[in-house]
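Quick start: what a row looks like.
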Amino acid sequence: MCGIVGCILKEDNDVAPILFESISKLEYRGYDSIGLATFFEDKIHIKKDEGKIEEVDKKLDLEDMPGSFGIAHVRWATHGNPSKLNSHPHVDEDNTVAVVHNGIIENYLEIKEKLILEGHVFKSDTDTEVIAHLIQKFMNEKFDLEHAARKTIDVIEGSYAIAAISVNEPDKIVATRKDSPLIVGIGEDGYYLASDSPAILKYTRDIIFPEKGEIVILDKEGFVVHDEFDNMVNKEIVTIDWTPEMAEKEGYDHFMIKEINEQAIAVKNTLTQKDNIQKIIDDVGDVQRICFVACGTSYHASLTGKYLIESLAGIPTDVILASEFKYSANTLNDKTLVIFISQSGETADSLKALDMANQTSKTLGVVNVVGSSITRRAKYVIQTQAGPEISVAATKTYVAQLTAIYLFAALLSKNAGLLNEIYRVPEFIDEALESVELVKDLSKRYNYARDFFYLGRGYSYPTALEGALKLKEITYIHGEGYAAGELKHGPLALIDKDIPVVVVIPPGESYRKTMSNLEEVKSRGANVLAIGSCDDESLKSKANNVIGINGNVKEIIAPLVYIVPLQLIAYYITLEKGHDPDKPKNLAKCVTVE
């Protein structure tokens, strides 16, 4: 939610083109406006407005700004409507301080009222503007920019990543964070700030990760990090193994289809974590209960983990939505392993839940982003190897999460047979991708629908849920996933010829019962699209349409493969409707506010 960038160049070259390019890389975080601030000749220069990046740039020419350092922002409205005045960067009334901010200041109204009484004049409806006024206030009291920022974060409450510049301290950027992501990049030509690494991969892969309450000071000579007591902190520099090319479309029309096609590689790369996972299992020791905590797509991956661990290892396993975790926290103890599944490692609800779980239990993070907050707070970490995922709708990070969960379950239960099956998944995924032309045709046929049902049993139930989520995320069609056996407990009343029903039906233990449910909806006029074995002649005779999967894909590993056509269906229906699959309305990649 929102994205910030900062850069200070070692030489006196214009920084605006770098700021613009870098902030454009963060549009996947969701935004409704964009703005830049640079410093030149004793003045802060600002260009900002609501609208899409390319539209605002065409109107304002955002790369044409003087100065060798500055800050930039893409905003997701939380306080105040999308507008030019509410866009970041924000300044004080004298234009001496400019700030960008990601997060929510919970006590901003109280602060704003006090500042107004002191004579401060506000221009926007945002919570962020109070930060600029507070910094100005403390600098007027003879604090330097760093300590004015320190005084400011002592006053504000909530979550934030903040970057600030001041006319009174040229050639300096000060930044800090609490519960919102912020990284610092060390490059050959300058120093960088960003909400996420894809923004600055072109310029550096050497990153440090400031902790909550630390202050970062960037100037032309380098960077310094101070803790809350003004002590200098020596930060480890982490070199990220992602390349700038990984964050580009590379000839694909959209990031989403590129990332769908990268899933076999994501599985292969995540399989390299096998030895690390075994070490974690050995070190964790006796576990009497496992609890997954996640949101959205990661929640569906976790549900699959529950089926695997309970059936293979016999350990009671729960799956809790991170936003609901506090209501279950009292049930944890030192024999509970709490596993946090998160693509970004920065999800606000998951971080709060992790802090609670750390008080009583062993914690494990399964995360795709190196150095993210979950990786630094959890006792154990499994690093999925999906590479950067830019499209808002998760695809390859989902199968990478599943791969890590499958490895964990197989090693925990000492199931060599399942391990062998997992290593076959990349070839099965590549085969599933060959259905693309059929899916394109089916997308034209099913484009009419206003509602979809997705059905599955056992391991296929979470897959049905994820397929429905992908559909509603990017097509804006209402889709609901159900456990197939629950149809007669209410949903069957909605079935008619106008509602397509997608049935996930791999060969295996649940096949016969799922087939009965398929026939049940078919007899009520439903148009059935089945995802099943390409060798299943009975299925072909009963469903209206079938997308065939290699018949050697066993039911237990079907979630890793059967999701692929469901992702493709959502993608191509989205194209039929003329929507942008990479940037669905109202959604953002990383939800860093509650």
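That is the whole record. The two ends are 11 Å apart (CA to CA). The longest strand covers residues 97-105.
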